[in-house]
Fold:
Amino acid sequence: MLLFMILLSLKPGNRARIEPWKTVPESSLLRCQEMGLLPGVEIEFIRRAPLGSPVEIRINDFHLVLQEEIASYIEVTLI
Structure:
């Protein structure tokens, strides 16, 4: 059984796959695509800033820092 969760709820070291977008607002959709946050892409959660925002993830060989607002829209499945 697959368990969907939001990217923001991952713990450091968790690996996950981005699920098809259902909750990403249209205003953030293009920005997510430009950053490579596409459905099916595998990510690793690196860390969260001390006050919660931003969060750092790894996609392939690069690190990406996301605002908490965007990270809260992205649904993932643990792998």
Q: What stands out?
A: Residues 4-78 form a domain with the SH3 type barrels. fold (CATH 2.30.30.90). The longest strand covers residues 42-48.
